[in-house]
Amino acid sequence: MKKKSFRWSDEIEPHKLRTRTIIKQHPEIRELIGRNPYTILVIAFCVGVQLVTAYLLKDAAWYWVALAAYGIGAFACHSLFVCIHECAHNLIFKNRVANTWAGIFANLPTLLPSSVSFQKYHLKHHSFQGVEALDADMPFVWEAKLINNSSFGKAMWLLFYPVFQALRPFRLKEINLFDSWTLVNWAVQISFTAAVVIFLGPKAILYLALSFFFSVGLHPLGARWVQEHFLTHGEQETKSYYGRLNVTNLNVGYHNEHHDFPSVPWNNLPKIKAIAGQHYDTLGYHTSYTRLLFEFLFNRELSVFSRTARTNRGKISAPVAKPLNNEALVA
After folding, report:
1. Cβ atoms within 10 A of the Cβ of 234, count?
2. Residue 313 needs a FRET pair 20 to 30 A away by CA distance; which of 6, 71, 178, 247 works?
3. Under 8 Å between Cβ of 136 and 165
4. Do the beta carbons of residue 141 and residue 191 sit within 8 Å?
């Protein structure tokens, strides 16, 4: 069965009500709100891992480069993406500029200058989840139609996920993606990439590029994008992941907890579940990214259309046309 539409909801973003309920029952959770400046050490470590590995592989055969990117670089890069995410929420330093610089630093080995832009559009995802005009995490309709539910198409979607993700922010008309900080991000990134090419050579760049694509693409870690908001458990919009790769993910697998309390740094997210477990234990969740990856690829009931979309953004209507049918299916 091929889906022709996202699941459409008339409700606003789903996390606010649970947040108010939990805070009322467990006001001590407010003590978990804050920052974790030690995250900068995680950034420095992962950047160092990528640079050292790139240096060691500068004269290696291409297949060793690819294997190292899949087995080492993908994990380091994924951790760096989560650190950029922490910077977007200002969860490392009190000073916003310091967080911006930390994000630019974390961005270096991933080659694509994206940290500053991510800071601008990510918070909209929290406030307007599923609203296409404001949520860059929502796929395009044409993207979902192109891929739909074929196993090969979904594999290609994951492999080239960075390309699709890079296109989505340009539809966010209410956000100015280009400013002086964007130029700084690009200038630093181009300078870094040029230095790697000059001093380490093309194999090092190949390692960094493959690490980037694997870290968010056709890899067990890429299943995170399915885990977070794909409809794998009925109509539940957000799912958490409680598995071992939360070490690499810096606990961003605790995704319901993060959306409910986005001002809580990564190291405190498991404490939210420990305190308010009665609100999370009854929700669907995942424990294996590898199992979820294969389920997404081979379950024909799951497609890029397996997301909840909405036009309701609160008091103002978003400029997105809602289809006449709720979720049309065609054999």
Report:
1. 7
2. 178
3. yes
4. no
**Coil, strand or helix: which one is 24?**
helix
Average pLDDT over every residue of 70-75: 97
Contact, 304 vs 144, CB < 8 A? yes
What is the secondary structure of 281-323 as a DSSP string?
TTS-EES-HHHHHHHHHH-TT--TT-SEEESB-SSSB-S-PPP
Using CA atoms, how far apart are residues 224 and 232, in angstroms rounded to an integer? 12
Question: pTM for this structure?
Answer: 0.91
Q: Give the helix/strand (H/E) hosting 329.
A: strand 329-330
H or E segment to which residue 8 belongs: strand 7-9
Q: Where are the alpha helices (DSSP H) in the chain?
A: 16-25, 39-56, 62-68, 74-88, 96-107, 115-127, 141-147, 151-159, 161-167, 180-200, 202-216, 224-229, 246-249, 255-260, 269-275, 289-298
Q: Please, which residues bridge with residue 312 across strands?
A: 317
Q: Is the dihedral of CA 130, 133, 138, 139 positive or negative?
A: positive
**Residue 226 and residue 232 in contact, taking contact as beta carbons nearer than 8 Å:** yes
Classify 241 as helix, strand or coil: strand
Q: What is the pLDDT of residues 138-187, one digit of tens each?
A: 999 999 999 988 999 999 999 999 999 999 999 998 888 889 999 999 99
What is the number of other CB atoms lying within 10 angstroms of the CB of residue 319?
12
Which residue shows structure tokens 């103002």? 316
Q: What pLDDT score does 314 carry?
A: 60
Query: What percentage of the chain has pLDDT greater than the value 90?
Result: 84
CA distance 149 to 302: 6
